[in-house]
TrEMBL record:
A GO molecular function held by the record: metal ion binding
BP GO annotations: cellular response to nitrosative stress; nitric oxide catabolic process
Protein name: Hemin receptor
Record keywords: Heme, Iron, Metal-binding, Oxygen transport, Receptor, Transport
CDD domains on file: HGbI-like (cd12131)
Sections of the chain in a coiled coil: none
Entry similarity comment: Belongs to the globin family.
Domain Globin residue range list: 18-152
Species this protein is from: Flammeovirga aprica JL-4
Length: 159
């Protein structure tokens, strides 16, 4: 949790962590707009993800509709958890560690980011703008960095 403490530790009123209160509000309010179309958003996300990197498709062997529900549920939990980082950090770290078992590589996080931003832009339409994009990018980078840092602590067994 050292990484997050350094980012989100006690700050004076003039200091903010890497994610501002305004950015959290933007991410939460825009996610609320996408939530009603969660199934469609998941379809858009995975279609874009596999378009960007077709090799990732082999990592998903289960029902994609179910996978989409898991994705949207995880996103909802992360977005809602932005107001309580103390509780969110261990969950995100655990997620990063579990993704090691799925053979997720650091470079995959960039592909996921591109697919996520595309999905949000598509789903939000006229509500998508540079400020919203920046807020989502900032939140994603912080969460993905936390996942990657946690994944790096997992010892893998060579076969």
């Amino acid at each position: 949790m050292g990484f997050f403490k350094s980012l989100f530790g006690k700050k004076t009123k003039k200091e903010e962590g890497p994610v501002s209160a305004k950015q959290i509000e933007l991410v939460q309010s825009t996610f609320a707009m996408v939530a009603p179309i969660a199934d469609k958003a998941a379809e858009i996300f995975y279609a874009k993800l596999f378009e960007l990197d077709p090799s990732l498709k082999s990592m998903f062997t289960s029902d994609m509709a179910e996978q989409g529900k898991k994705l949207m549920s995880m996103l909802a939990a992360a977005v809602n958890g932005l107001n309580n980082l103390e509780a969110l950090v261990p969950v995100v770290q655990d997620l990063g560690k579990r993704h090691v078992g799925y053979n997720v590589e650091d470079s995959h996080y960039d592909t996921v980011a591109a697919a996520l931003l595309y999905t949000l832009e598509t789903g939000l339409g006229d509500n998508w703008n540079e400020e919203v994009k920046e807020a989502w990018t900032t939140v994603y980078v912080v969460l993905a960095t936390t996942m990657k840092d946690a994944a790096a602590t997992v010892e893998t067994v060579e076969e």
